[in-house]
Amino acid sequence: MTINKEAVKKISKLSRIASNDEFETSMIKDLNTILKFVDQLNEVDTKDIEPLSSVVEQKLFQREDVVKKMNEKEEILKNSPHKNENYFVVPKVIE
Amino acid sequence: MSEITKLTLVELTKKIKSKELSALETANAYVSRIKKSKKLNTFVTETLDQAIASAKNIDDKNLKSGVLAGAPIAVKDLFCTKNVQTTASSKILKNFIPPYESTVTSKLWDSGAILLGKLNCDEFAMGSSNETSAYGNVINPYQKNGEHLVPGGSSGGCSSAVSANLTSSTVGTDTGGSIRQPASFTGIVGLKPTYGRCSRWGIIAFASSLDQAGPMTKDVSDSALMLDVISGYDEKDSTSANIEKGDFLNSLNKNIKGLKVGIPKEYIVDNMPKEIQTLWDKGIEWMKESGAIIKNISLPNTKYALPTYYIIAPAEASSNLARYDGVKYGFRAPGKDLIEMYENTRAEGFGNEVKRRIMIGTYVLSSGYYDAYYLKAQQVRRLIKNDFDLAFKEVDTILTPTAPSSAFKIGDKTNDPISMYLNDVFTVPVNLAGLPAISIPAGFDEFGLPLGLQLIGKSFDEQTILNSAYALEEKISLKSKVIDWWM
Asked: Are B262 and B395 spatial neighbours (Cβ–Cβ below 8 Å)?
């Protein structure tokens, strides 16, 4: 599988990373190098092998349904680069 | 003053408890050294005034009951620290002030330790040389013919700071070797605990199924003490293991007579420097002299660990890093609409290596490629874990080199991502299998640069690798060769 300019544009769109010519040129080179490296895995026979997504074997537990005071609104909002009263502000979404 | 900073964590905390040393004179010793060590660029954020104030408070109120009472400790800038800037060494988190404290660092402060500041690392812990940090590369206290070297990565600020005596000990994180490889490059001890041993809550996530916090210290006893403090079940982390806590320092024992030590033939890699092989052979001899039984073992899927890792880790990272969108915290770049604002924020806020990994991760998870890459990698991950499971039926621990080289020059590997990734060839399989492993300084190369040996253990059997490391440490009896050239 090789990655061309169109593919890089598509992946950068999906990744929400703004793209330009310079970025695309370097990504075509790097992504193809990395994909060629990981293509070694095709040598491995993985027929009927169960995928391993986590090494944790314990089951998830249920906790008591108790209200706990954690992060307060003001503290959370303090870190926002743009806020107004109780809201995060973003560029207009609806026309 | 400088003698104080040379003490191990165990020695230091004993002296503070017995009042041979005050917390204040200890804090002052570290603060004055840190101020004279800017050249190493180990800190992203310093909290020196607060550290002095905390130390005074400990002395005044005689708060000496905690096991780490009065120990000054700086931590990797990947741990959220309440009211102290936490950046993950990224521009995108500049000025982020967490309103909460990570579980691991809470345990340090609850035990009486004092925060010195936040240590530089590779951006979002993605790198093996600390060169991807948005706050500049860290310098290794060891030099090669007077030239600057990398401290390893991603916990490069941590390794350099412990090696240069700028912190009494520290906690780093290890996703593919980020505690052990920098420990090896700077002549210190680094322990990656079993996945689930320490809570991940409040640690900025890179690859959640692989990330694990652990000690980086001057010696093995310090690592045992630190693990005693930071480990334990946490209901806030669903992958944290609900098992009995160990008593690692008190159980430390250098008698390893009859211990079965595996030597995996697949870890003999192409172009491995002769001195690494020589050191490994010496390690085998030292283990034998201590009464251990050496067994040759096979971990046949070792060569597939790196390619597996470079699918799984970026995939998880691309998902974890989706939250950095310029809305809730950190950096924001303008854009004419919401999507453009996201795209510009992420293009300007992330560095090249992080963008590369997000792109790879997005690609391998995207429609049409998921099965060929991501699912395939998870299947190979199972095979790698099975190799270890099988080997650990025969042996108690596995001995390998930590890294395939000593510390390299700044800029040497930045143009070729694969050559950088190969640094982690001996450390990555351990993360994929979720096992504990420790790196200890075991010798020096011809340029006087430190080299490490790695001991891998069974799941939740940190005690065995700590004991083996403790026995090796006594045999090797290595002294730091750091001379304070930067002061």
From this structure: yes
Cβ atoms of residues B280 and B399 within 8 Å: yes
Q: Flag whether the ipTM exceeds 0.90.
A: yes
Looking at the complex, report in whole angstroms how far the Cα of residue B84 sits from the nearest Cα belonging to chain A.
12
* Cβ-based contacts of B365 with chain A (< 8 Å): none
B97/A3 touch (CB, cutoff 8 Å), yes or no = no
Of A16, A31, A80, the CB nearest to B343: A16
Q: In chain B, which segments carry CATH 3.90.1300.10?
A: 2-261+394-476
Task: Kindly indicate whether the domain formed by B2-261+394-476 is annotated with CATH number 1.10.3720.10.
Answer: no
Which helix (H) or strand (E) is A75 found in, with range? helix A73-78
Residue linked to tokens 């998830």: A60
Structure tokens, B211: 């990330």
pLDDT per position as a tens digit, B283-310: 999 999 999 999 999 999 999 999 999 9
Segment B175-233, tens digit of pLDDT: 999 999 999 999 999 999 999 999 999 999 999 999 999 999 999 999 999 999 999 99
B405 tagged catalytic: no
- Is the CB of A86 inside 8 Å of chain B's CB atoms? no
Please judge whether A50 and B379 are an interchain contact, meaning their C-beta atoms are less than 8 angstroms apart: yes
Residues 282-301 of B with CB under 8 A from A: 301
Sign of the Cα pseudo-torsion (B153, B156, B158, B163, in order)? positive
Dihedral, CA of residue B237, residue B243, residue B245 and residue B251, to nearest 10 = -140
The whole-angstrom separation of Cα B198 and Cα B191 is 12
Rounded Cα gap, residues B88 and B381, in angstroms? 27
Three-class secondary structure of residue B482 per DSSP: coil
Residue type, B106: S
**Residue B178 bears catalytic tag:** yes
CB within 8 Å: A38 and B310: yes
- pTM for the model stands at 0.97
